[in-house]
Specification:
globular; 22% strand; 6-stranded parallel β-sheet; 15 strands; 9-stranded mixed β-sheet; single chain; 372 residues; alpha/beta; Gfo/Idh/MocA_Oxidoreductase
């Protein structure tokens, strides 16, 4: 079975073209980009004939089975809804949407259309996450007691809608792993803002905070998680971290990029409790044709390397894993991970966390997306 894939947005999106070109179940059918010079440059570089400068024209093409959306954040919900309603499967880069109402609409459209929706959250397919998941599933961590994650980045100089963005409006990289490890559903959240960004940045979103830190309570679980985010005026090397504390072993992210993470093992002599570990690669989970993409960037054109990829250290080898999950869900007619309900929950944690911060830390309940 070959699925005709169309990629919308060719900045970060072009990273995925060669993966779809080599995946045994996909035909890299079409690309879409408003800037026709960029469209043709990428189309020529990767040998893709079908090119669209308008998403409506692309969605009207009956040959397109699925779209992978990599457009700016504020287009995600609108384009995902259009694609689902046009009868296409949807993979969309994070976050799912910018409002709780949009998340609800996407969940409903997914049910009504019978099509698959997957938010392409890199962290839950990173080699570090897959390593911790493997430890958990083998029982080595024991009972999970607490989860923690951060995403800190300096967004100065990023274009368009980024200046002044509330930190928690782009929170899925830290919400995803703490929710995703045990497939937990966030029930409510409380968040505090701390510090103040530069005066000229505040009016863009009326959001003053340099850092937002949130506690998440999970439904039908004794667990809670702590996540924090910063985007401006906070000195920190790029970091997407997550940490898991278990009764037998705990996993802690390194403080500096490039160092090895630490496993703490209970009941050893104090000085033997921590141990640095090498995280293996998980290319063996993938079809042979796309295994090389866990350890190398996929651009042929050096000048096209996207800033999020270089700052994000290649997103932990996650790209081919996400592609394989999305494609496999369509081929096997099952729900992808994360599906629409999970994606809405993770995205809404961030949206409502920011609301909570603006409201002095007041508890905010998440909608029950599964009942829509």
């Amino acid at each position: 079975m070959k699925i005709n894939i169309a990629i919308v947005g060719l900045g970060f999106g072009a990273e995925f073209i060669p993966i779809y070109q080599r995946h045994p179940h996909t035909n890299m059918y079409a690309i879409c980009q408003r800037n026709t010079d960029k469209l043709n440059e990428i189309g020529d570089a990767f040998g893709i004939e079908k090119r669209y400068s308008n998403i409506d024209d692309l969605l009207a093409d009956p040959e397109v089975d699925a779209v992978h959306i990599n457009s700016p954040i504020h287009n995600h919900a609108e384009q995902s809804l259009k694609a689902l309603r046009a009868g296409k499967h949807v993979a969309c880069t994070v976050p799912m949407a910018t409002t709780v109402e949009e998340c609800m609409e996407i969940v409903k459209a997914c049910k009504e259309s019978g099509k698959k929706y997957m938010m392409m959250e890199t962290v839950v397919y990173s080699r570090e996450f897959l390593f911790v998941k493997e430890l958990y599933e083998k029982g080595e961590l024991g009972k999970i007691q607490f989860l923690k994650a951060s995403h800190q980045q300096d967004m100065d100089g990023w274009p368009g809608y980024w200046p002044g963005l509330p930190p928690m409006h782009y929170a899925t990289h830290c919400v995803g792993p703490v929710s995703g490890l045990l497939k937990l559903e966030a029930e409510y959240v409380s968040c505090f803002g701390s510090g103040t960004i530069r005066e000229e940045l505040i009016p863009h979103y009326n959001s003053p905070f340099a850092i937002e830190s949130a506690h998440i309570k999970f439904k039908n679980s004794d667990l809670s998680a702590y996540v924090y985010r910063s985007l401006f005026d906070t000195a920190r090397q790029y970091r997407e971290s997550f940490e898991v504390y278990g009764s037998q072993k705990s996993f802690e992210w390194p403080l500096i990029e490039g160092e090895d993470p630490v496993i703490h093992t209970a009941k050893k002599p104090e000085h033997e409790i921590p141990e640095r570990v090498k995280v293996p690669d998980y290319a063996h989970y993938l079809p042979e044709e796309i295994q090389p993409f866990t350890t190398q960037g996929v651009y042929d054109l050096a000048e096209n390397t996207h800033l999020s990829f270089t700052q994000g250290s290649g997103h932990g080898g996650s790209h081919p894993h996400m592609v394989h999950e999305f494609v496999s869900a369509i081929v096997e007619d099952r729900e992808p991970f994360p599906n629409a309900v999970q994606s809405a929950n993770w995205t809404s944690v961030g949206i409502l966390a920011h609301d909570s911060a603006m409201d002095g830390g007041k508890l905010k309940n998440l909608p029950d997306y599964g009942s829509l």
